[in-house]
Amino acid sequence: MNHKRPGDHKRPGTGPLTVTVFVFPGVRLLDVTGPIEVFASANEFGGRYRVQIASEGGAEVITSAGTRLSADLRVDDVHEPSDVLVIPGGPEWETLIKDDALLDAVRRLHANARCTASVCTGAFLLAAAGLLDGRRAATHWRHSRQLALRFPSVRVEPDAIFVRDGRMMTSAGVSAGIDLALALVEDHYGAEVARAVAKDMVVFMQRPGGQSQFSVRSQVPHSRRETLRRMLDEVAQNPGANHTVSAMARRAGISVRHVTRLFYDEVGTTPARYVEQVRLEAARVLLETGDDSLPVVARRTGFGSPESMRRAFVQHLGVTPGAYRVSFRTTGVGTKDSESESVSL
After folding, report:
1. Could you give the residue numbers annotated as active site?
2. HTH araC/xylS-type domain location, by residue (predicted)?
């Protein structure tokens, strides 16, 4: 069976693609402007998008930031099919999902759209409208558990930056709407156009890792023990240095056993595992942003050899360092032919 992806219905040269962005009181501003900027930038590099903003009654709305956002038309005036419908989110999603008129507007817009895409907590609106039943979906990592609990028929992927399931696309927190829009640009006009947009906006073509893979050092709870804080900072600041347990103990002037106990009690892992996570993060940054060879990256980040680095990448990320670097040449949308996919690395 030959599955079509969103965007296969129309290609460059057959007329502009219509993007409809639905707004409502309390909408998060970046959820709206992030995707719009991507589509507007794409028009400078060969894309052909026509963006329109719709609200329930056609009136301007006050965003969660307190700014006013004008609408171009009412939901009832959206008669032509939308190639892409964008449903943003808002911090007051718990109230929004109880608004029957709002959910009805979402259903009507979706019925007239070839692809419906949500940003951040916009996934809750789609789920409450019954549009994600039986589908895979993503939302902000902080709200993933709530989405799964409130809507058990939705298969939530908590670490995905965005997920595509048929004609539905859902993305993670706030700026992930930019990732999603870039994926759609690549789908419609190819990787070269999407790459030009990403470069123009100074963003990744495909963001490093999933949304749970934040800075290793920043995830460690603050400790009142200066000795431990100093050890953690030393590893983060110079991952290529000697960070064996004995070396850390010697520098701190405490026993190896005490170092191990500090890590176990306050970091929740062993010193070796923590060091490996920091080195993995440092290697990812070098692969994403530079052109150093794999042996050089391995040496600079403390892995020592490309093979050691390769084992760590495969174990924790499921890809080799070489494949990881290649992933930044594309948003990832063209790497699979299935109708459903997620992007998270």
Report:
1. 120
2. 226-327
